[in-house]
Design a protein that fits this description.
Chains A, C: Keywords: Oxidoreductase, Pyruvate, Thiamine pyrophosphate. Chains A, C: One of its GO terms (molecular function) is oxidoreductase activity. Chains A, C: This is Pyruvate dehydrogenase E1 component beta subunit. Chains A, C: Its cofactor is thiamine diphosphate. Chains A, C: InterPro entries: THDP-binding, Transketo_C/PFOR_II, Transketolase-like_Pyr-bd, Transketolase_C. The complex is a heterotetramer, with two copies of chain A (339 residues) and two copies of chain B (351 residues). Chain A is built from twelve helices and 14 strands. With 339 residues, chain A is of the alpha/beta class. Chain A folds into two domains: 185 residues, Rossmann fold; 127 residues, Rossmann fold (3-Layer(aba) Sandwich), CATH 3.40.50.920. Chain A has a seven-stranded mixed β-sheet with strand order 3-2-4-5-7-6-12, sandwiched between helices. In chain A, strands 9-11-10-13-14 form a five-stranded mixed β-sheet, sandwiched between helices. A two-stranded antiparallel sheet of chain A has the order 1-8. In chain A, helix 3 runs parallel beside helix 4, helix 8 packs across helix 12 and helix 9 packs across helix 10. The N terminus of chain A is likely disordered. With 351 residues, chain B is of the alpha/beta class. Chain B folds into two domains: 314 residues, Thiamin diphosphate (ThDP)-binding fold, Pyr/PP domains (Rossmann fold, 3-Layer(aba) Sandwich), CATH 3.40.50.970; 27 residues, no CATH class. In chain B, 43% of the residues lie in helices and 9% in strands. Chain B has a six-stranded parallel β-sheet with strand order 2-1-3-4-8-7, sandwiched between helices. Chain B has a two-stranded antiparallel sheet with strand order 5-6. In chain B, helix 1 crosses helix 2, helix 1 packs across helix 3 and helix 1 packs antiparallel against helix 9. The N and C termini of chain B lie far apart (64 Å). The chains are: A alpha/beta (339), B alpha/beta (351). Chains A and C meet through helix 4, helix 6 and helix 10 of A and helix 4, helix 6 and helix 10 of C. The complex binds thiamine diphosphate (TPP) (2 copies) and magnesium ion (MG) (2 copies). The site of one magnesium ion has 6 residues of chain B, from strand 5.
Chain lengths: 339, 351, 339, 351
């Protein structure tokens, strides 16, 4: 299930402190340098280097044939990327914010994800779609959506979402090397929130593998992207109250790492799932049914979910009330533990 | 195509009247009304930029340089008309009657900023590019069905013309001959992307041909040209003669938003030849003796006062209510949403 | 939560035998006759009476100002309907097949469902979007999608799906009368599969209310739309094997009737959920988490889901293998019962 | 606009040569090649309609009446070019080299019908209207990047021009000057909706102006006009001169699909004046002495044989494999999908 990739050297040998967004930039740079067919395209990705500077310096280094400013046209970006991908290129298409991916939904749903199926593999669409997602940065409306579930429900595309700089570069490279289309979601809120040592060389983080960031016995906490720091903090606070949490960062949203989920929950018998998308239809439900399917007899308490509410992501004056907080997660941990 | 769609103007950069036929209409009161509104929204705009710098509001997209386009078009509308602005058209909204303190509120992340004064048909600024264009066709279609003489005007930028919704909206308006004005502000950039990379057509006006929609290209920094061309498009719309596409060629003086750095992508000195619309009008007023230093100064003071008061009002505004997160999603909210609300209100009570 | 509606007379007084599609047609006719502001618009809905004849005769009766053939332009249809709805009309917009709703996804996601929220109720979008959905009629590709979960995840729009002619008319009228936008999904496969007595008068079926079609003690079966006949048949077969099933037709997909689900499962302790959409991200997960949240201690076996696979709805040669069958449901009932 | 885009034709309804300059090129072999392909796809099309009636394939959208447009355009392509057809363009696909039995298979609900012969760049027929248009821009852009002389041709109907993807695709092609031919078959109906309700522009050709894309309006029932105009668009594309929009005016003789009843929406006798393209070519051949009754009859027999054999092959084709439901979704399928497959194969083993 994971991509076959050569491990280049020892990835930890030479490292550099990077933010998450720098790691993404570095991942793209690595791939642009490695393979001539790799392209970056999207609105403002060229001269401007992206509205968040994710593509900073890439056009200067690789030319405007390989790092391309496109018209303001999401369906056009994805639709032409299908053509580029089918015809020998590896497009990394940027959608400026996840909330602006909807005009391209048709292309992704009926072509990006289905072309391989409908031609029995004769044509394939190896492309990466990058999109910053999520609330918490006081952005205007629609800029803060977290609608990964619209894509995990769609067969034929993989979905990844790094929470750390290391995973950001490693997953980006894995996504570019993957023969299938990959949606690569970037937690805007974590773009510059911390730095970590990231190998300067090429390496990858396998698609489909979750990560146990902290082991624990009592309650399993599961999240991804910008919610990982939240569950980590909640785990710390719970610890102070004598509740020992296991912390899982899913990293890949489709396909889910069902093993890592099931194994953990079989041990703890309790799970709290956290995401910023709405409860109804959220990916947390898939995690929950995974637990139902694989660990039913181990469960000591109902699965608890802490999520965004079933309301549109609000204008930013209220976004702190929309987003799961450490306090809400802590409360859920306590409720679950004391059930 | 540039010769098929010459840029129409009534006054030139130096404030000279080019079209004598308008002479009588450009009387003292008339001219000062334009100046007043342009100065007013400029003051608002600069204030908003400052507030953002001070962290008192969120990211803000200035419209400086586009005042003539926004004021000229908004003044051509009637009270029953509908306005469909973008995030950069708060100047047009204010001119058409939006509340100024609420407009500041909008940029402070408050939905209250989307609620127009009663009787003012102003839609919330469209954030997803071009999506408002079919709305304006639909609302105008409704007016036509009702048999009124009202119209809808949709504002949008040069970048917006690349989106499918631009195309679909214009096609509907054309097929159903709706009373809609498609008002394009071609400020020559979509964030960092210059119009030459956005499209390979020489003008935006020529895009009307695809739909059989009459179109016109005007100097968007000439408030009178904007006004009179919008007015004649409105007249056609009211008379049942369908939609019009107006390309108002203008220039975004500053950054795309307060988060943007145009030196990253704009060549040095690009646009320095553009005479911005308020200066141009001032020149005209001076040339034709409409300018009264003292009166204008008084006007400026009044406007600055108004803007200050609006800021104060915005900042005195009651804090955003958590209930509002839940209360407006549905007219009759489902039980489970009410349950989420209750449980969250309970949860934060302790804090 | 349910719409306030006057019950006109005794709805069962005068009835007529109708297929599901006739009942839909009759529902639209009733509403067009009752309220001048009601409009029907979409591709081929006018002169042609719809590609399935759902709007047959409506343009003849109500004129081409009220029953309108539009250009081939889904975003245009929904986008202009937003304008019509905001400005005093009640559009019933047809999307010819659910698989062609994606070009309008942006309009539905960022405007239809959010306009009321973002104007604090100042503007609202009371409209109905009708779309035939589902596989099993040997249609070309993309014509057979069942992607309700893309809309139940979207706050601000209700989603209904009738399984019977009676519910079809009653839900259509409720949808038209509802002050909020409603997505009305039509099980293509059931359009003409059976007839039942339907009141000729106006009546409604409340949005948000599920229906227990058969009471039972051992296992709760839950489905909607075209899967209702499947679970009914499976219940019959299970009965022959001594397993007594309760059969629930959800009818409304958002908001879910959590009470009817919880009550039943508390009684039976076992649930089999059936839908033709993909397992991952399917609405079945919401039913499952409802059970987890409300009936955890009552569960005697893991919740079982019988769904379409995590593959695009196939070309029709294989659709019978994609769709849940009576046999697959029966097997799930047995597994659950014997757990 | 109709005068700006006059309908170009080389032979008229009665089979008279209108453009003497083409006289030399229209030699015996050349002309018969067109006749052969048009008769061949006609035979395929009628067979498909019959098979559908007999329940041997699924719903089928006949292209009768559009043979000249499909054959003329397909014959103008080179071997390295890319074709992006719709569900109604199997005539073009067959002419360009698609396998006939697989084409029947497609209409029998089999993905095998989407797999082109090796080396033939034929995309699966686009079912969601207009979505193939940006693909053709993208594939052509790739050819340009590679520095080849290959192009992409996108087929689409009059109705497709209303979709956003038509607009976005043409704009991309124009901005990046991709070697793409946008080949519109204006058959004057989109299911039941006549072109007058689809758009309010007199022509489809004029839509090219919106993008600065050269466009031409041709008689789509004149196979030679279609051929030579496509050829010159192709020449421009190959030479780096960018995209072309071709409006081929034609007529859908029959129903939209076998599930459609055009008497519901078409006025009586509409279209009876249209001389369908095979008759027209036959007249031309007779007028200019290319017609050899015996040779043609032999050709017909050969073609009918080919089509029969293709049907037999289709019907002898191994049954659809359940594994194919799962095996082609991903190059490297996730574990959980393999598990679904295994468990289902296990489940049906008993049956
Ligand atoms: C659908 C969509 N895609 C992308 C964006 C991000 N975005 C915001 S403004 C903008 C540029 C708009 O340019 P233009 O239409 O010329 O209007 P201007 O900002 O110049 O007024 C972009 C790309 C968006 N808001 N919506
Ligand atoms: C996005 C989308 N909407 C609706 C349909 C249903 N549909 C299939 S064919 C068709 C009409 C197409 O008309 P046109 O583009 O003129 O092509 P023609 O069928 O005449 O060849 C429609 C509406 C579809 N396939 N895709
Ligand atoms: Mg602009
Ligand atoms: Mg057509």
């Amino acid at each position: 299930m994971t991509t076959e990739l050569k491990k280049v050297g020892n990835p930890s040998s030479v490292t550099q402190k990077m933010t998450l967004i720098q790691a993404i930039n570095d991942g793209m740079k690595t791939m642009l340098a490695e393979d001539e067919t790799t392209l970056v395209l999207g609105e403002d990705v060229g001269k401007n280097g992206g509205v968040f500077r994710a593509t900073d310096g890439l056009q200067e280094q690789f030319g405007n044939d390989r790092v391309v400013d496109t018209p303001l046209s999401e369906s056009g970006i994805i639709g032409t990327s299908v053509g580029l991908a089918v015809n020998g290129f590896k497009p990394i298409a940027e959608i400026q914010f996840m909330g602006f991916i909807y005009p391209a939904y048709d292309q992704i749903m009926t072509h990006v994800s289905r072309l391989r199926m409908k031609t029995m593999g004769h044509f394939s669409v190896p492309m990466v779609i990058r999109a910053p997602y999520g609330a918490g940065v006081r952005a205007p409306e629609v800029h803060s959506d977290s609608t990964e579930a619209l894509f995990t429900h769609m067969p034929g595309i993989k979905v990844v979402c790094p929470a750390t700089p290391y995973d950001a570069k490693g997953l980006l490279i894995a996504a570019v090397k993957d023969p299938d289309p990959v949606l690569y979601l970037e937690p805007m809120r974590s773009y510059r929130s911390s730095r970590e040592e990231v190998p300067v060389e090429e390496y990858h983080v396998s698609i489909g593998e979750g990560n146990v960031r902290k082991e624990g016995e009592d309650v399993t906490l599961i999240a991804w992207g910008a919610m990982v720091p939240i569950i980590e903090k909640a785990a710390q606070k719970a610890e102070e109250q004598g509740i020992n949490c296991e912390v899982i960062d899913l990293r890949t949203l489709y396909p889910l790492d069902k093993d890592v989920i099931a194994e953990s929950v079989k041990k703890t018998g309790r799970a709290v799932i956290v995401h910023e998308a709405h409860a109804t239809g959220g990916l947390g439900n898939d995690v929950a049914t995974t637990i139902n399917d694989q660990a039913f007899l181990y469960m000591k308490a109902p699965i608890n979910r802490v999520t965004g509410f079933d309301v549109p992501v609000p204008f930013f004056a209220l976004e702190e009330h929309y987003l799961p907080t450490v306090e809400r997660v802590l409360k859920a941990i306590q409720d679950t533990y004391q059930f | 195509m540039e010769d098929k769609f010459p840029i129409k103007r009534i006054i030139d950069d130096q404030g000279n009247l080019l079209e004598e036929s308008f002479k009588d209409q450009l009387n003292d009161q008339f001219v000062k009304r334009f100046y007043y509104h342009m100065y007013r929204i400029r003051t608002f705009d600069r204030k908003a930029k400052n507030l953002q710098r001070q962290g008192r509001i969120g990211t803000y997209p200035p419209f400086e340089g586009q005042e003539a386009a926004q004021v000229g078009s908004a003044l051509a509308l009637g009270p029953g008309d509908w306005m469909f602005p973008t995030y950069r058209d708060h100047g047009a909204m204010l001119t058409f009657g939006a509340d100024m303190s609420r407009t500041f509120l909008y940029w402070n992340g408050r939905v209250e900023g989307c609620v127009p004064p009663d009787g003012k048909n102003i839609f919330p600024a469209a954030v997803p590019i071009a999506t408002q264009i079919p709305h304006a066709a639909g609302v105008a279609w409704a007016e036509k069905k009702k048999g009124t003489r009202n119209l809808a005007i949709a504002y949008f930028g040069d970048g917006a013309t690349s989106e499918g919704d631009f195309h679909e909206g214009l096609n509907f308006a054309s097929v159903f001959q709706t009373p809609t004005i498609f008002f394009n502000q071609n400020n020559r950039y979509a964030i960092s992307v210059p119009i030459e990379k956005q499209m390979n057509s020489e003008t935006i006006a020529q895009k009307g041909i695809a739909y059989g929609i009459p179109s016109v290209r005007i100097d968007g920094n000439d408030c009178f040209s904007v006004y009179f061309e919008t007015l004649s498009a409105a007249e056609r719309a009211r008379n049942g003669d369908g939609p019009t596409l107006i390309e108002a060629v203008t220039w975004r003086t500053g950054a795309h938003t307060t988060a943007d750095d145009p030196t990253k992508y704009r060549p040095d000195n690009q646009g320095i030849d553009v005479v911005e619309p308020i200066i141009r009008l001032e020149r005209f007023m001076k040339n034709y003796e409409f300018w009264d230093e003292k009166e204008m100064e008084e006007m400026h003071v009044l406007i600055e006062d108004e803007v200050e008061r609006a800021v104060q009002e915005m900042e005195k505004y009651p804090k955003a209510k958590v209930e509002d997160l839940f209360d407006h999603v549905f007219a009759n909210p489902p039980q489970q949403l009410l349950a989420q609300k209750e449980s969250y209100l309970e949860h934060i009570k302790g804090e």
